[in-house]
Write a structure and sequence with these properties.
single chain, globular, binds heme C, mainly alpha
């Protein structure tokens, strides 16, 4: 890291001259090697996460701005990666959904084994009028169900969205919670209830 800081400082002070648009020309192999180096001591299942799948590769290649033909390909592929609940019911319990949306636990180096993963939805979305702390990378989800007239098809679409955001919006910044096995079917149902239950703070 120090080396990078020094190089960055040198860049800022003009001590190193890079051609215009140099960042667009960074050698992908160098970037790859540097990135892999950061996870040298990680467990194998962590290391696996550093390998891009086809969708991530094509999104990186096009800086998340896909030409139409690639956009259509990603959409088609990611749609096949959505597994809807076997019992056809997408609505769980909004109270547990609220806890999942609030929780940023799980998937971190320092989590104790057995930690239940959270969705950390508030990190990117507003979901209730009373919660003061929320991120704005994603759109506000206030009144999500109400606006959609509590329509069952819309609730199913929200399940698919949370399961695999890229099946709706290729190159989305939203994590693919179900596809990556990070949240369980029941947890995603609970989140759909958070969005679509009339009693949920989302719709108050
Ligand atoms: C890292 C940020 C991030 C996190 C965490 C995140 N989202 Fe998102 N979400 C986004 C972004 C960005 C969009 C808009 C682009 C898109 O549609 O993919 C979005 C879109 C959505 C939409 C569609 C909104 C619409 O206009 O119809 C829903 C529903 C949603 N998120 C639900 C959730 C839920 C539930 C969680 C928690 C399990 C969550 N998100 C976690 C970034 C995030």
């Amino acid at each position: 890291m120090r080396l990078i800081a020094v190089a960055f400082a040198a860049l800022l002070t003009g001590a190193i001259a890079l051609p215009a648009n140099a960042q667009d020309r960074a050698n992908p192999a160098d970037v790859e090697a540097f990135y892999e180096g950061m996870f040298k001591n990680a467990k194998d299942d962590w290391k696996k996460k550093t390998v891009q799948d086809e969708t991530q590769k094509v999104c990186s290649q096009h800086h998340n701005d896909l030409p139409q033909v690639e956009f259509d390909k990603v959409l088609a592929r990611e749609k096949t990666n959505v597994k809807m609940p076997a019992d056809g019911n997408v609505m769980g319990d909004w109270k547990s959904g609220e806890k999942i949306a609030q929780s940023g636990f799980g998937g971190r180096f320092n989590d104790k084994p057995g930690t239940v993963n959270g969705g950390n939805c508030y990190a990117c979305h507003q979901l209730s009028k009373t919660e003061l702390s929320f991120g704005t990378l994603g759109p506000s989800l206030l009144e999500y169900g109400k606006i959609r007239k509590y329509d069952a098809k819309e609730a199913a679409a929200a399940y698919a969205k949370i399961y695999n955001a890229q099946a709706v919006q290729p190159c989305s910044n939203m994590p693919r919670f179900g596809h990556n096995g990070f949240l369980s079917e029941q947890q995603i149902k609970d989140l759909v209830a958070l969005l679509f239950d009339k009693e949920s703070p989302v719709n108050k």
